[in-house]
Amino acid sequence: APRVFSGIQPSGGLTLGNYLGAIRRFVEMQDEGGYECIYCMVDLHAMTVWQDPAALTRNTRELCAGFIASGIDPEKAVLFNQSQVPEHVQLAWIFNTVARMGWMGRMTQWKDKAGKNAENASLGLFAYPALMAADILVYHATHVPVGEDQRQHLELTRDIALKFNYDYETEFFPITETVTEGAATRVMSLRDGSKKMSKSDPSDASRINMTDDADAIAKKIRKARTDPDPLPETLDGLEGRPEARNLINIYAALSDISAERAIANVAGQQFSQFKPMLAELAVEKMAPISNEMARLMEQPDEIDAILARGAERARGIAEPILKETYRIVGLVGA
Ligand code: ATP
Ligand code: MG
């Protein structure tokens, strides 16, 4: 059966971008049936930039609550945190020997996150895509649902699989398919239409958190950066207006309609009319999830038990794949 893998970092609280670009699709793939779904809280990835230990713990549990509140069923999908399945890191080491420095240096996430001071970035941040390839390939996953920003890392995952298969004259690792779908595969910052919305953005006003209450959501949307013109009749009219386009994409994704339909619905409106409507819609869709997250967070022991069970199931799949990898490369004892 086709196998789905995807991960989210506990590097902060979940955002509307994570929900629309990733989690919503995770739930659909789980519910569609026919896929074996594995969803991971990638805590070791989060550590590639500094995480306060207590915050990392809390964020991991909250992320798990976010998955479940959004509709992931831990009985159906395998739900766990990365650090508890050591095969990820073990395979990542093999991939560190496969991936080339040049490949890693070209990754836009590396360039964005390391910034101008790459000398001072962690070695882990540079190697991030090799660990990500291992996350996926240690399960022989065939489909990876992600936001637009992760496309390049998935190409690199394919390059690593291809090079490994070529170097060791095998067809052991599958060539994975990237799944990006919908109107909101790249939700932008509410403060800057050229930057994606991120949970690690220092500005809280730049994003809608899945735990924001109705007032916070309404305020952030009201204050979202826009231009003075009314909304046009068609999407063409949004060219060069990234902030307006972003709000239309969010509106479309939340209402489950295409961006074309969305702009037709609100053509001619001023932002003073459109924004309150969008805020109300966002609250209506997100409030039940955030309420459920808060309820689940009251029982951290239950969350920990779910993660522990998930890790056990994940290991059952990963262990033989790592062992076979070790055998292929010639490690004695495998
Ligand atoms: P960080 O800022 O720490 O990198 P993040 O918000 O980018 O956090 P990740 O954990 O890196 O979140 O990514 C988890 C998933 O959410 C990935 O599939 C990613 O593509 C998706 N995603 C992240 N941000 C957005 C966004 N703004 N729009 C759509 N999808 C997104
Ligand atoms: Mg990210």
UniProtKB/TrEMBL annotation:
Binding sites annotated in the UniProt record for L-tryptophan: D135
UniProt cross-references to SUPFAM superfamilies, sorted A to Z: Nucleotidylyl transferase
Signal peptide: none
InterPro entries in the cross-refs: aa-tRNA-synth_I_CS, aa-tRNA-synth_Ic, Rossmann-like_a/b/a_fold, Trp-tRNA-ligase, Trp-tRNA-ligase_bac-type, Trp-tRNA_synthetase
Motif ('HIGH' region): 10-18
Main location: cytoplasm
Record keyword Nucleotide-binding present: yes
Motif segment ('KMSKS' region): 196-200
EC number: 6.1.1.2
Binding site for ATP: Q9, P10, S11, G17, N18, G147, E148, D149, V187, K196, M197, S198, K199, S200
Reaction(s) the record says it catalyses: tRNA(Trp) + L-tryptophan + ATP = L-tryptophyl-tRNA(Trp) + AMP + diphosphate + H(+)
GO MF annotations, alphabetized: ATP binding; tryptophan-tRNA ligase activity
Single GO biological process annotation from the record: tryptophanyl-tRNA aminoacylation
Major enzyme class: ligase
Complex and partners: Homodimer.
Family membership noted in the UniProt record: Belongs to the class-I aminoacyl-tRNA synthetase family.
Its job: Catalyzes the attachment of tryptophan to tRNA(Trp).
Xref: HAMAP family: Trp_tRNA_synth_B
Name by which UniProt lists this protein: Tryptophan--tRNA ligase
Organism this protein belongs to: Tranquillimonas rosea
